[in-house]
């Protein structure tokens, strides 16, 4: 029975692929992090999994920080290493999980970049609509309306087919991380923009190749890179100078819902977060907004 870290890591990755149904992107991240961990173990002379100690795992995290990784990235790498150690215990390779009590590096929590409601409006309305709008304009406006209107990840939006929008009754089903399905209500503005694109824009782009909702000029599915370019072009037209990405609209969706009084667990469901802890970062943003308003408005601030 091979007990070197690389062999056990290979078995764990196979287990994740077959048993857990993780997305290709998530698996790629796991492979990168676990390869880095195994390489480090080799560099420090550990070639048998049973020889790894808690101090070794702690030293690995310290090494990542010395290499310049942010605390959040080092924390994610630790999560992957912990997963490997849990697997090694469950499969009987070792008797003790030496990584269980290793703490992630502390660091200031990064608050996601968001736009104000007025800035989101400027971003979307910078794209022409009506009779003068081109097929690409109608597509781009529908894309931005759906990103902000649903809070979905760009990969989820680009995976939509025409059938997902036809007769959707104001509800869209998304297949998120880990193949988890969730339903998200869609507002009237996003539905209207999508309808205009389906009726007037998409037929001009469609070359009979695909049922994907969003198409490029050649009639193929729109890529993530093209979606980013659409956002950056719209931001320039709206004279917004922030570095705006599809995730900026997702963050803005969550923040604006919480500022409007939505329950954090409802927002968790809409975003498809497996834990409410992930969603609670947005409550820090709204709290900061409250402090800013108080500081500028209260006579004794």
UniProtKB/TrEMBL annotation:
Keyword Cell division: yes
Keyword Nucleus: no
Catalytic center residues: 153, 177, 247, 250, 273, 282
Domain of life: Bacteria
GO cellular component: cytoplasm
Cell compartment(s), UniProt: Cytoplasm
Record keywords, A-Z: Cell cycle, Cell division, Chromosome partition, Cytoplasm, DNA integration, DNA recombination, DNA-binding
GO MF annotation terms: DNA binding; tyrosine-based site-specific recombinase activity
Alphabetical GO biological process terms: cell division; chromosome segregation; DNA transposition
UniProt similarity note: Belongs to the 'phage' integrase family. XerD subfamily.
HAMAP family: Recomb_XerC_XerD, Recomb_XerD
Known role: Site-specific tyrosine recombinase, which acts by catalyzing the cutting and rejoining of the recombining DNA molecules. The XerC-XerD complex is essential to convert dimers of the bacterial chromosome into monomers to permit their segregation at cell division. It also contributes to the segregational stability of plasmids.
Quaternary structure and interacting proteins, as annotated: Forms a cyclic heterotetrameric complex composed of two molecules of XerC and two molecules of XerD.
Annotated protein name in UniProt: Tyrosine recombinase XerD
Organism listed in the record: Corynebacterium poyangense
């Amino acid at each position: 029975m091979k007990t070197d870290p690389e062999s056990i890591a290979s078995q764990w990755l196979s287990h994740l692929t077959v048993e857990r149904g993780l997305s290709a992107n998530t698996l790629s991240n796991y492979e990168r992090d676990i390869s880095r961990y195994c390489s480090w173990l080799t560099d420090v002379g550990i070639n048998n999994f049973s020889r790894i100690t808690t101090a070794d795992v702690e030293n690995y995290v310290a090494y990542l920080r010395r290499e310049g990784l942010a605390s959040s990235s080092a924390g994610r790498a630790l999560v992957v290493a912990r997963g490997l150690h849990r697997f090694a215990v469950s499969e009987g390779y070792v008797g003790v999980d030496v990584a269980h009590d290793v703490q992630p590096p502390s660091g200031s929590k990064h608050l996601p970049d968001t736009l104000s409601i007025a800035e989101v409006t400027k971003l979307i309305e910078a794209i022409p609509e009506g009779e003068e709008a081109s097929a690409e304009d109608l597509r781009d406006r529908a894309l931005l309306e759906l990103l902000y209107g649903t809070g979905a990840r760009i990969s989820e939006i680009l995976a939509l087919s025409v059938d997902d929008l036809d007769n959707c009754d104001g509800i869209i089903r998304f297949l998120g991380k880990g193949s988890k399905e969730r339903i998200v209500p869609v507002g009237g503005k996003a539905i209207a923009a999508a309808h205009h694109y389906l009726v007037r824009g998409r037929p001009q782009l469609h070359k009979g190749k695909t049922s994907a909702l969003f198409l490029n000029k050649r009639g193929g599915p729109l890529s993530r890179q093209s979606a980013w370019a659409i956002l950056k072009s719209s931001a320039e037209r709206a004279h917004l100078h922030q570095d705006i990405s599809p995730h900026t609209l997702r963050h803005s969706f969550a923040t604006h819902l919480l500022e409007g009084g939505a329950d954090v667990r409802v927002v968790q469901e809409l975003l498809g977060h497996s834990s409410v802890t992930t969603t609670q970062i947005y409550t820090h943003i709204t709290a900061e907004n409250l402090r800013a308003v108080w500081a500028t408005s209260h006579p004794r601030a």
